[in-house]
Design a protein that fits this description.
Elements lengths: L3 E6 L5 H12 L7 E3 L7 E9 L6 H5 L3 E9 L2 E2 L8 E2 L20 H10 L2 E6 L7 E2 L2 E2 H7 L9 E18 H12 L8 H12 L8 E11 L5 H12 L3 E11 L2 E2 L2
Helix pairs in contact: 5-6
């Protein structure tokens, strides 16, 4: 039996669901230990490393591998998870940018975006996202977030490094198409992730006139980073540097160490 497998985790799956799917697909007995080395959020897709048998004891060695991602960032909207699977943060529209023609698109130039992306390259200490599985006082952060007890704890931090960010392009997406994407992706998620509340919050903004924008700007990036760097956090930080809200519309992990997604 191999020591490990690289699998392509799908949008909507949790890492545990991807692991159990592999166990069933390969006919691996339930008595054989399996674990994943490095998480991917439910809304993220791409490479997931799953260790088998005694190799599970080597998990810490695999956790430190560098990663590469392709990330789409939606400008002008934020959520409490900094990705699609989160309740919308109201306000924070793009500042000092007029609507362009009748399409009602607020657009930031590539030059301005690139300048802020350059500032995000390098080493820094970051707080873990509130909606993450990092344990604090015996339970994961997302449980503190759901129960409203985040103010009672000290948010854990970690040092990460972003080696490079490549600007791959940009597009405009209509409110109608955006809402379709959001609903399709959230419907793929099983378990209790506040799906109803989240969809309602998106509908309030997109469908019920919560924004005057008809189209939104989406930029696509390739990011090479150390282990532990959250692409959701990167999207949020880019928005902050531009004076707006922003979130990760899509995240695909394309490389772990030397292994590339085929």
């Amino acid at each position: 039996m191999p020591k490990y497998f690289f699998v392509n985790k799908l949008i909507g799956q949790t890492p545990l669901e991807a692991l159990e799917h592999l166990r069933h697909e390969k006919g691996i007995d339930s008595s054989v230990p399996m674990t994943y080395a490095g998480r991917l959020d439910p809304m993220a897709e791409g490479l997931l490393l799953i260790l088998i048998g005694d190799e599970c004891k080597m998990k810490d060695q695999y956790l430190g591998l560098d990663k590469e991602y392709e990330v789409e960032i939606l400008l002008g909207i934020g959520s409490d998870t900094a990705d699609v699977l989160g309740k919308i943060i109201q306000g924070g529209q793009i500042l000092d940018v007029r609507f362009e023609n009748q399409r009602k698109t607020q657009k930031i130039s590539e030059e301005i975006i690139q300048k802020q992306l350059n500032n995000l390259v390098g080493k820094r200490t970051e707080k873990y996202p509130a909606y993450s599985s990092k344990p604090v006082n015996g339970k994961p952060l997302f449980e503190h977030a759901k129960s409203g007890s985040l103010d009672d704890i000290e948010m854990p931090k970690k040092e990460i490094e972003v080696y490079s960010i490549d600007f791959l392009g940009q597009q405009e997406i209509s409110k109608k198409e955006l809402m379709k994407i959001i609903i399709e992706r959230i419907q793929k998620v099983k378990g209790n992730f506040r799906q109803e509340e989240i969809v309602d919050s998106w509908k309030q903004v997109i469908k019920a006139g919560g924004t005057t924008q008809e189209y939104f700007q989406v930029i696509k990036l390739k990011v090479h980073s150390s282990s532990g760097a959250y692409m959701r956090t990167l999207a949020e930080k880019l928005g902050e540097s531009l004076g707006i809200h922003a979130l990760a519309l899509s995240i695909k992990r394309t490389k772990i160490g030397d292994f590339i997604l085929q």
